[in-house]
Amino acid sequence: xxxxxxxxxxxxxxxxxxxxxxxxxxxxxxxxxxxxxxxxxxxxxxxxxxxxxxxxxxxxxxxxxxxxxxxxxxxxxxxxxxxxxxxxxxxxxxxxxxxxxxxxxxxxxxxxxxxxxxxxxxxxxxxxxxxxxxxxxxxxxxxxxxxxxxxxxxxxxxxxxxxxxxxxxxxxxxxxxxxxxxxxxxxxxxxxxxxxxxxxxxxxxxxxxxxxxxxxxxxxxxxxxxxxxxxxxxxxxxxxxxxxxxxxxxxxxxxxxxxxxxxxxxxxxxxxxxxxxxxxxxxxxxxxxxxxxxxxxxxxxxxxxxxxxxxxxxxxxxxxxxxxxxxxxxxxxxxxxxxxxxxxxxxxx
Length: 349
Ligand SMILES: [Zn+2]
Ligand SMILES: [Zn+2]
Ligand SMILES: [Zn+2]
What we know:
By secondary structure, the chain is an alpha+beta fold. It has 9 helices and 11 strands. Helix 2 (about 95-115) crosses helix 4 (about 190-210), helix 7 (about 260-280) packs across helix 8 and helix 7 (about 260-280) packs across helix 9. It is globular. One zinc ion binds near residues 60, 61, 69, 79 and 83.
């Protein structure tokens, strides 16, 4: 993630909606990939100082302040390219759902930023009902009554992906709840952004690998995805990963099934590319300093990942990147890199 500059000279961050120095309103222009200062224009529109264009705030910006993205004034859609992907949002009249939703949208925009940066196709479901993307942010239904077993509430909304629709249980936006789930699942890393990056991996597998020309190579690296998915997951949750999983997989969960292996590898690739961009923007100097070659990406990441963990330990925090990448895991990441580089924009051409 880059930082951006206000016309007043202040440094702006991706989530900002107002410059703290000159107090101008801000908006992100997804078409340009920049956060810009805005000047009010006629009929509720705004002039973006980055390109002089006329824009409107996304409806989720003007109504709820859970978004800071803009829509070109001539476009009909009330929502920005991120918010128009929503099919279900939480019931905002309940509890702190507005707060939870705002956190979810923030993580989702970070995801979208990286997808757009990488040139990956982002198409909403109404434009393409077969191959488009949609999100559902849902909460578990109420327990039957106050005497139901509240100690182990049953999750009924399963975070996951199914044919282009990504569902997120909104309790993932509640840190204490997410941490409880992380421990229960025996995971080393669980974040909202991580969920988005993992689930979108399933989406792009269908779009780019299954429908593309990569299936043979996928099978050679990840195995046969036709293996029964539900029994594979059942086995994983019962027995855990194989003892030597680190030799083959980026994470323990990746060992559950070739689809999960792919989604975990994909998520790691997005972790790497986004974090490296952030480091570069803040002037971290790493060895390779070039963009496109996978070897450079990996050597920069090897350095930065260790530095990140060391910085966190200096603050008394857990490791930011609690993973070690084996040679085999890196081969899988190289494959993700090739798919991303090779298929950008091509899926909808
Ligand atoms: Zn400013
Ligand atoms: Zn929006
Ligand atoms: Zn998955």
